[in-house]
Amino acid sequence: MDNDPNQGVQAFAPAHCDDYFIELCALSTTDALTSEQWRQLELHLSICASCREIKAQYDGVIATALPALAVHLAQASDGYTSDSWSIEQAEASLMARIDRENISPEKDPQPSARAFNWRGLPWPYAGAAVFLIVAACAGYRIGLLKGRSSSEIADLPTSHMGNAQRDLNHSGVPPSPAPLMSEQRTKKEVELRQQLQSSGMEVVQLKEQLNRLENELADSNSALDRDSQNHAELERQLSLAQTNAQNLEDKLNATVSQNSQSGAQSQMLQAQVSELTASMREKDQQIAQHEELLDHDRDIRNLIGARDLYIAEIYDVAKNGKTQKPFGRVFYTKGKSLVFYAYDLDQQPGVKLASTFQAWGRKGIDQQHDINLGVFYQDDQNKKRWILKSNDPITLAQIDAVFVTVEPNGESSKPSGKPLLFTYLRLTPNHP
User: Fold this and answer.
1) Is 163 helix (H, G, I), strand (E, B) or coil?
2) Which stretches are annotated as coiled coil (predicted)?
């Protein structure tokens, strides 16, 4: 019965996997990876099922192929002699068997995805697998050789030993190279034991790394559980917010429906408001006119009832003796009030761009201290009439003449234009 050491080991099939991670899977069995490469490989294995299968197949080589090979060699050890085996022969035999039992890789439609077999392996991890198998075979063979050599030497009779020794001494044949081979085997055994010890230390380190990774995985799982709880809470809040939004939307639709029903009524009310507004504006204008008339009536009554009233009409006379267009009418109550009406102020030459007509009071011939009495405002646009009122007794007591100027830049602090409609006020009252 032939116990094939490769029995149960399937061919590798790295379908569409990165060669870098396939190489890491192969080297992981020799502990030749750095901490960073271990971390990269573990992260990649967590998301790549193909590489996980490849890693499991490499681990299967170590777990199943080596013990099966040892059993096979033990069954074939009956015909073994000390000169019939060496490490070089075992490696050559293994490679010949690999070549004999594997078929050529099939052509894949995609150039980057090739069928994976032992011969298709990249040399780093193919060599790693060969080294592990050869090391196991060498260790097993050394153990068998030591056991069998000891038992055979103990079983040989002393007489046979002596005869063999005498034959060797008298034969003239050179001594056997057995001591040299034994020394080489011992050296190989020491090297293999050292390699075995180094592998054991690496296994301890790998176990420590595995424990550390398991702890990190447990922490990650705890964080994932917390994230799952937070996600569930957020989903609950989202559902509640969606329910509230739906309720608000229903209320909005109801409100819009009510607004559409009352739209015609609102338009009717708006039309009524517009009518009422126009009516109120018209009444306000009427009230303003009545108040203005009342003010005029009050002024007229005050003027008519005044005891020391001076009334004068004012004209400007040109050099040729003709009266000019503007003229005015003054109602002056001594020490109480002054009402100055001016007509056609904007009809004189050079005042079309004027913006303000301003009245001034003067004391005697002092032209440096003219007193500002105020600005004319238009009383009646159709009649082109302007009016100025002053009811300040203190100011009226300081002046004895009034006149008008045109101020292009608005109200001024001193006269800047030509005096118009100049008249004296220190005259004898002519009314009543």
Assistant:
1) helix
2) 196-293
Cβ neighbourhood burial of 131 (10 Å; 0-12, 13-18, 19+): middle
Specify burial of residue 17 (Cβ count, 10 A radius: 0-12, 13-18, 19+): buried
392-412 b/e with 16+ CB inside 10 Å = b? eeeebeebebbbbbbbeeeeb
Residues 213 and 286 in one domain: no
Residue 17: the pLDDT is: 61
Long-range contacts of 77-82 (CB under 8 A, 24+ apart): 77/144, 77/148, 80/144, 80/148, 82/145, 82/149, 82/178, 82/181
H or E stretch covering 363: strand 356-363
Residues 291 and 326 in one domain: no
Say what the pLDDT of residue 116 is. Answer: 40
Which of 193, 228, 263 is a domain's end point? 228
Structural domain boundaries enclosing 104: 19-228
Domain termination residue (choose one: 286, 304, 322): 304
Given this model, what pLDDT does residue 182 score?
76
How are beta strands 401-407 and 385-390 bridged, if at all? Answer: unpaired
For residues 286 and 297, state if they share a domain: yes
Regarding whether 293 and 352 lie in a shared domain, the answer is: no
Q: b/e per residue, 198-234, with b = 16+ CB within 10 A? A: eeeeeeeeeeebeeeeeeeeeeeeeeeeeeeeeeeee
- Domains in the chain, number: 3
Same domain for 316 and 186, yes or no, is: no
Q: Is residue 179 a contact partner of residue 186, using CB atoms and an 8 Å limit? A: no
Which pLDDT belongs to residue 217?
92
Given a contact cutoff of 8 angstroms between Cβ atoms, the answer to whether 71 and 34 are in contact is no
Regions of the chain short of the pLDDT cut 50: 1-16, 78-84, 103-121, 123, 145-176
- Of 358, 338, 349, the residue nearest 316 (C-alpha): 349
Query: Which pLDDT score, from 0 to 100, does residue 65 have?
Result: 65
Domain for residue 63, yes or no?
yes
Looking at the fold, whether 145 and 65 belong to one and the same domain comes out as yes
